[in-house]
Amino acid sequence: MNGLGKNGIWTHLSILVLLEQLWKKDMSEESLAMKCGKCGPGYPTPLEAMKGPREEIVYLPCIYRNTSTEAPDYLATVDVNPKSSQYCQVIHRLPMPYLKDELHHSGWNTCSSCFGDSTKSRTKLVLPSLISSRIYVVIEPKEVHTKCNLGYLHTSHCLASGEVMISALGDPKGNSKGGFVLLDGETFEVKGTWEQPGGAAPMGYDFWYQPRHNVMISTEWAAPNVIKDGFNPADVEAGLYGSHLHVWDWQRHEIIQTLPLKDGLIPLEIRFLHNPAAAQGFVGCALSSNIQRFYKNEGGTWSVEKVIQIPPKKVKGWILPEMPGLITDILLSLDDRFLYFSNWLHGDLRQYDISNPQKPCLTGQIFLGGSIVKGGPVQVLEDQELKCQPEPLVVKGKRVAGGPQMIQLSLDGKRLYVTTSLYSAWDKQFYPDLIREGSVMLQIDVDTVKGGLKLNPNFLVDFGKEPLGPALAHELRYPGGDCSSDIWI
């Protein structure tokens, strides 16, 4: 199956049908869900999800925008079953119909939030496009623009209502606007915006909801016009990047509180604890390189506090005199014991024990490339953490370009998968070798007893060897749901 239809591209219907065929072929919902008679997709609780089967395949979008390859982005299926003859190989590629979409994150048509509804089935992967504003499964940007006055789409989450909600970074012209597109989960018709008319946040990016506390919290990156061609430090000085969390009333669909983040610049990925009764979580602030904990007060309002700070490194040979870690992705284990995050520029991946969420304890750290490796263009002049610059990472003969970025944890918490591409415009600016050589997918073994991270030296998926040229692989998804796709209610 080469993934091509008439004139060499998929029709919209073909993409939808093939996604369903891939699902049925690779792993059925019945084999993944804990059966309870008549139940819906996923698992009844996060702890039950930890008992789910080992992952055998992974879906991840691969991007060609800002590379030398004039080809559509595509969805790759990677075999991660060690017993398979195709282990660590891309076993299928599904190209999109158009060029320069910039696929980024993805989500499911339904998830564990619908576990109690036996009429729901996890059969469709939703792929929003960060630049073109298309939604594959399959919605043209004009419909999003016309019905919602939104564009530049990012996070997709399924809701307990059976609907799908997608966050936006801006309006169709690329101005800042943090609204949410609402889709019918069966027909995928664009229903309009989730928020009340005129009630969008000033900026948008990621979001997470916790219905038992009648709350959703969203984050901020920047206006699409600010970020689409690269990073300009002057835009930070001009206040064009985000520094707030927005607290929403889940039932009324309106902002009830805005939380300024002290020393918190560019809050990106946000995670409530998986326990649906928990009234706290964490957000990773990329540029200021800290983790902030948000929590509900006794009076019902919300507050935020910084709990982890990654110190910058004084450097020579870089665009600024100090280099931040740049926390670009965070993840919580399903038992809410460990927090993981990536420092894309410094090049390290960290594990923290969050048994006491107010005082996370570092339990694991591993360097996987980055901008400060020995022999590179950057010289570290002063470092509060390291005595010397880390060695470049070589896996199975491949020197890894870029740094650890998107991460995904196995259900049992014992394997962490990592990709190295952030966003094509920033990849091109900060890691030009990544554009030429393509990104990689790595696997880290996790010690879930004492804590600790160890590279699996036998696992490498090299997207620099793709048939049409080096590609930039991004977010990872398992067919049956994972630590960042599913929300429990």
TrEMBL record:
GO molecular function: methanethiol oxidase activity; selenium binding
Membrane topology note: Peripheral membrane protein
Compartments (UniProt record): Nucleus; Cytoplasm, Cytosol; Membrane
Keywords: Acetylation, Cytoplasm, Membrane, Nucleus, Oxidoreductase, Protein transport, Selenium, Signal, Transport
Annotated signal peptide: 1-28
EC number: 1.8.3.4
Biological processes per GO annotation: protein transport
Catalysed reactions, semicolon-separated: methanethiol + O2 + H2O = hydrogen sulfide + formaldehyde + H2O2 + H(+)
Pfam families: SBP56
Database matches in SUPFAM superfamilies: 3-carboxy-cis,cis-mucoante lactonizing enzyme
Entries under InterPro entries matching the protein: Se-bd
Pathway assigned to this chain's UniProt record: Organosulfur degradation
A Gene Ontology cellular-component term: nucleus
Principal place of residence: nucleus
Family: Belongs to the selenium-binding protein family.
Quaternary data: Interacts with USP33.
Function: Catalyzes the oxidation of methanethiol, an organosulfur compound known to be produced in substantial amounts by gut bacteria. Selenium-binding protein which may be involved in the sensing of reactive xenobiotics in the cytoplasm. May be involved in intra-Golgi protein transport.
Name of this chain's protein: Methanethiol oxidase
